[in-house]
Amino acid sequence: MDIVTATNILYERSDGSRIPMDESIRACAAAGYKLLDFGFVELALQSEPFHSPSWEREIEGYARLAQELGLRFVQAHATIFDFCDPGFEYEQELELFKRSIQGAKILGIPWVVAHPSTGVKNGAMRPGTHEENVAFFREMAAFAAEYGVGIAIENMWRTTPEGVRRYAIEAEELLRLIEDVDCENVGACWDVIHASLEGLNQGEAIRLLGKHLKATHISDETGANNFHILPYNGFVDWEEVLQALADIDYSGPFAFEIQHYLPNIPMQLVPTALELSVQVGRYMIEVLQKYRTN
Questions:
Q1: Mean pLDDT of all residues in the chain?
Q2: 11-31 pLDDT tens trace
Q3: pLDDT tens per residue, range 86-143
Q4: Longest alpha-carbon distance in the chain
Q5: Each residue of 243-281: b (16+ CB within 10 Å) or e?
Q6: Nearest CA to 149 among 64, 214, 217, 65?
Q7: Is the confidence at residue 1, as pLDDT, over 90?
């Protein structure tokens, strides 16, 4: 097991500018990362080729770049698709979501993280939201199976734009969704700061998900205005999280999602900050392994 980072670790800048995907990948390699989580979310926001009919060429280019740099993609984040509340761009959004799965195949990625969706009606969660999620993920699981890819559904947090508490915040609700979808290539992704900001008992949640946990989003938070930062800079009880991962013998990607760690760091200091993140991640894995043997 080695530390993984999402490619969005170097994406957002405090002046509003964005770092291209290839530059972020190269910076991660230079800092010592060997394993990456590919961000289709950010790619869809900044890449015109990804929206074109020849989109596969761009993904193939990232596969070649990773090979040149000695990197391996082990996890990905699908585009955000609020399928329970479709708008006029539903078909386009569905196509980008499917491209995330097909792109994962090109990059050799076994698990793609995806958000569940919350149906809203009359200021409340729409009855049938659970069933809509089950139907959607069963359909996408069948699609993903054609490419040898799995879908890891992520625990959510906060509210919808209408102020409605999101679906699948609690581990129990996420587990029910996964069990009702009942497909071998559908599991869970546990986002630590989502759970932390919701005040959940992370140890209990991780142990409840157990064998269904296929991916992680590891980061810290000091509140709703400062999250997805480097671990040990916030309020997360890392002893609890790491002990629980050891208890279930978790062996999937230990993946940083810390896109708010670097935006204010001057670019001259970014290489050093990236190297520190590698050291922190490897230290955490060492602690996890010690808990595993105790």
A1: 97
A2: 999 999 999 999 999 999 999
A3: 777 999 999 999 999 999 999 999 999 999 999 999 999 999 999 999 999 999 999 9
A4: 54
A5: bbbbeeebebbbbbbbbbbbeebeeeebeebbeebbebb
A6: 214
A7: no
**Phi, psi for residue 193 in degrees, rounded to 5:** -75, -30
The CATH code belonging to domain 3-293 is 3.20.20.150
Where along the chain do its domains lie?
3-293
Provide CB contacts within 8 A for 175, sequence distance 6+: 188, 208, 209, 212
- Its pTM stands at 0.97
Structure tokens at 104: 């994962």
Contact 61, 25 (CB under 8 A): no
User: Among 20-34, 37-51, 85-99, 212-226, where is mean pLDDT lowest?
Assistant: 85-99
Closest CA to 239 of 291, 171, 193, 294: 291
